[in-house]
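Sanity check

After download, print the first record. It should look like this:
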Amino acid sequence: MDFVHEYVKLRSDFGRQCLFSDRHVELLADVPSNPKLAQNFSPRETRDVGVQGCWQMSEHEVNTQRIEYDNCGINHVEGGWPKDINHLEMEQTIRFRKKVEKDEGYMNSIQLLGTLAGQCVGQNNAVDIYEQYFEKEDMLEEIQGAPSAKTVNVFRDRNEIKRYVTSLSWHPDKGRSLAAAYSCLDFQSATAGMSTDSYIWNTENPTKPEMTLKPEFQLVCLEYNPNDLHTLIGGSCNGQIVFWDTRIGGDPVEISNLEHSHRDPVYKAIWLQSETGTEAFSASTDGQILWWDVRQLSKPMERLVLDLGWEENLNNALGAISLEYDVTMPDNFLVGTDLGVVVYCNRTAEILSEKVVCIYDGHYGPVYAVKRNPFFPRNFLTVGDWGARIWSEDIKDSSIMWTKYQMSYLTDACWSPVRPSVFFTVKMDGVLDVWDILFKQSDPTLSVKVCDDALCSLNAHENGRMLACGSQKGVITLLEICSGLCTLQQNEQGHMEEMLERETKREKILRSRKSGDENTDSKQLILRAERDFHNLLQAEQRKRGLESRQWRQPQ
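Expected structure tokens:
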């Protein structure tokens, strides 16, 4: 480490400033030579000296002493002890060790050996001498094993009246904590004594929550801020937006005004990518999308009504159930509605009609989840009714891939953050399905019976190995899937890209053929109708001509 010292002194302490300028040559002093002084010196004789530009070296031979080597085997026993110490007696050996450790020579030797050992450790860190030459083959065997999942922990609602786990959010810092929102989605069965608390759980301690969040009303959604590890935003069942800072405690820091909030429960709230890191937007079944700044929640910054008639009438607006936002496309977002359609919106559009870019219609019931593929953002996954569908932004009329209809209703889904071809779904029969569409598209790769109650929420950790599932009875189950389902396979991303492009092209071709067939059929029908009409006219004319000739013949 280099040390730099800086000394500071006032300019006035250096004296008068020196000013330099150009001047002509001026002779200030002239010392003439004195010939008499030459008598005190004697001239030196001239000599020639040879100089070489290399070292002088000599060559000679030396016979070294020969050493004889011998190989022999020995039996290793504990040794090195003085004669007066019995190594079988523990007290004597301990006493001798303490004596040696106090010796100055022993301490110097240990310090010297420690330096050498540090150098060896540094070399080992630079070059892996324990490299596994067949590591890829071992990993391939592990990946090719049977897919599996095991339960790691179970977190239960601490209240007597159990509530739905409606939202799950992992802590951005290595996922050491898990925030869960609890509410009663069946509002008719809600009782006055039902708790409004939500919890932040430590993933290693299921007995007691790490922190209890205390909103005024039950939370339907809860989300960690990816830019600030201590802040969360939540949406309550009465439409208000709530902001927390865990450094302050479990009480809310800011709450939106009721008159400027949503009129229905807030089903989704997502943080935006902004310079301040304090902006978010929310969606509700009242048909509104509201943008907020958590530093001032008195009034939303912006408002969008999902009225496809462009009249901003809340009575005609589509209710928002799910919401999706990707930082790579900060101006665009997807909204899943209660009528089974997904609305693609553009926030920066100036005209109201241009804010809704297109509509994807493919479900018979509410769209409970809309998730973009983290590797291919132009493709997104939707879950509604009894199946899941994969869409491409280029095709509006139909999805490019879909699962067959299940026996139970699907309630939530998410992509694997580490594998582009794997996604997860949960159902109302308590089953978690793991899909690997590169391996099999008709059936899930793995189905796990998590619990006997309906599963209503799902979230995957950023490492792709841990899954959190929330049930209808307030139970959160933490699952760990096998390494084969969370390890990126060789060329998987390229194969997935080829599959998505192929399915997109196939769907485009089918759509064009279908539209062509429809046009062809309509033309043929028109030609057939015209031909039938002309035939009918000709038959009528022939009939009339025959009757006129019969009338003109004499009786």
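If your output differs, re-run the checksum step. Summary of this record's structure: Residues 551-555 have pLDDT under 50 and may be disordered.
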